Each structure stands twice: as structure tokens, then as C-alpha cells.
């Protein structure tokens, strides 16, 4: 079953083993939860601004099936 990641709009397989569902990855989940404002959650990936999510740069750590 495919669902759409609410953050990056990628298709992601609904997997009960995926703790981030319905998101495709941890980063998308944290973004959606607004965790960017929380100092505890620093994602050492890209320098993405909280209000601006780069769609094209989201491919590398996105699990695709
Ligand atoms: Zn995503």
C-alpha cells in the first residue's frame, strides 16, 4: 500500500516496520511536527529553512521502493 508523505509528497510504502509512517523518513516526520524549532532535533543534513522545504534536494535519503 502506498501513501503520500505529508511533508515531501513522495510516495512511500506503508510499512508497519517504518516508525515514521505515514512519513517517508525521520526528517519528514520531524519537519511536520515542527521540531525544527526544538534545539533537540538537529538534522545534520541540509541547511533547510523551517518555512522552506526544497523538493528537489530530497532524493538522497528518501527510501524509494
Ligand atoms: Zn517525506
UniProtKB/TrEMBL annotation:
Taxonomic superkingdom: Bacteria
Supply the Pfam families for this chain: YacG
Cofactor(s) in the UniProt record = Zn(2+)
Stored SUPFAM superfamilies? Glucocorticoid receptor-like (DNA-binding domain) (SSF57716)
The record's cofactor note says: Binds 1 zinc ion.
- Alphabetically list the UniProt keywords: Metal-binding, Zinc
Region listing for Disordered, in residue ranges: 42-65
List positions binding Zn(2+): 5, 8, 24, 28
Q: Which InterPro entries match?
A: DNA_gyrase_inhibitor_YacG, Znf_NHR/GATA
Where is composition skewed (Acidic residues) in this entry? 46-65
| Quaternary structure note | Interacts with GyrB.
The task this protein performs is described as: Inhibits all the catalytic activities of DNA gyrase by preventing its interaction with DNA. Acts by binding directly to the C-terminal domain of GyrB, which probably disrupts DNA binding by the gyrase.
What family does this belong to?
Belongs to the DNA gyrase inhibitor YacG family.
| The name this protein goes by in its record | DNA gyrase inhibitor YacG
**Organism of provenance:** Marinobacter halodurans
